[in-house]
Amino acid sequence: MSLIGSIYDAALDATLWPDTLAGIAEFVGGHGIGLLQKDSLSKATTPHHHTGVDPDFVRTYAETHSKFAPTSPLPFFDPGQVVSFYDLVPYDEFRAGRFFGEWMQPQGWVDAAGAVLEKSATGFSFISALFREPHGPIDDKVRSRMALIVPHVRRAVLIGKAVEAQGAKAAVFSDVIDRLGDALFLIGTEGRIVHVNAAGDVLLRAGEVLRAQGGRLVATNGAADASLREALAALGHGDAAAGTKGIAILLTGDGREPYVAHLLPVNSGDRRRVRQAAVTAVFVRKAAMPMPSAPEIIAKSYKLTPSELRVLLAIVDIGGIPEVAAALDVAETTVKTHVKRLFEKTGTNRQAELVKLVAGFSTPAAA
Question: Residue 134 carries which DSSP code?
């Protein structure tokens, strides 16, 4: 599938993203699409790559309308899970809001299919495809097609960040792999090691996570090695054979320090420049074990819907019901309904108690 190949090529050459995104939009039936980053502190959203959206509307989205878009709850869905705007906000509430009236409707957009690609303590990146009638609101066909593509986009974004961090471009990729902080193994046919960078050599010498056996890369954990063998076999046949395999393989278990391997096909497109004999790049790094954010813990603890969590956080940040309604661009009655449900689910009776509850989750040392 050439579309999958173009996604991985864009990982090494960011100028390819607009055309690649256009191909993704066509595949899923969308009319506009973008890769975006939302900052958790400033609430600002940056459209890094996009196509199919008028530049003036891209500008107003970044400057103004992204603050009213219902994307804040996205991180509370699993990475890669495809959701629509109507999964985040009730249909009538969304259609009556400022974001729909000022930004979506003038362009003829009726819905969007999005998925979180990566999240951290400071924000999250996501892909969002926009749909016009008669393709929206999105249906199961759109969700299934997005689900086929999103794992590849996630993998490409991850690899692109690793390369960008080293100031690398596709043309000089082979010159910087030895300077990557992550361990990198270039794998040829039949799982044979073609090249190992310095960090990878350290891992092999230690022999606790990976080792070289008969010229092949082997994981010391049996289950991890089986997964690695399966993934290498699939990726060795090229982009199309990669299917929907996950972005990473956990290499260690049994409570040991976790390492994760990320796999990238390198035998297609611009990726051939890496090494002619290599078919797969395996990036290995010590897995970061980030603590869930306080809102994520609260949402899971009290089984809050995205809309309820959105109102709860607004109460903490903004204050009273009229102010929250104005900020979220919804009716005061809608906010009151969510607050009533928040009281019921959290066992509180006043807004001040909701604020105290959130503060307790945000301060680990609190009594």
Answer: T
Which are the contacts of 222, defined by CB distance < 8 A and separation ≥ 6? none
Residue 192 in this model has a pLDDT that exceeds 60:
yes
Q: Residue 84: which CATH number?
A: 3.30.450.40
Residue 229 belongs to some domain of the structure: yes
Q: Are residues 298 and 206 in the same domain?
A: no
Ramachandran sector of residue 59 (left: φ over 0; alpha: ψ -120 to 50; beta: rest): alpha
Q: Cα 60 vs. chain centroid, distance in angstroms?
A: 23
Domain that holds residue 174: 170-286
Q: What residues contact 202, with CB distance under 8 A and at least 6 apart?
A: 183
- Say how far apart CA 284 and CA 319 lie, in whole Å: 45
Kindly state whether residues 274 and 317 are assigned to the same domain.
no
Q: With pLDDT > 70 as the criterion, what percentage of the chain qualifies? A: 80
Chain position carrying tokens 């902080």:
181
Return d(Cα 246, Cα 262) in angstroms, integer.
9
pLDDT tens for each residue of 312-356:
888 887 778 888 887 777 889 989 999 999 999 999 999 888 888
Residue 24's closest CA among 49, 47, 46, 45?
49
367 located within any domain: no
CATH number at residue 247: 3.30.450.20
Distance CA 206, CA 192 (A): 19
Structure tokens at 301: 């603890």
Instruction: Locate the DSSP E strands across the chain.
Output: 32-39, 45-51, 83-84, 109-120, 123-132, 183-187, 193-196, 210-213, 216-219, 248-250, 259-265, 280-286
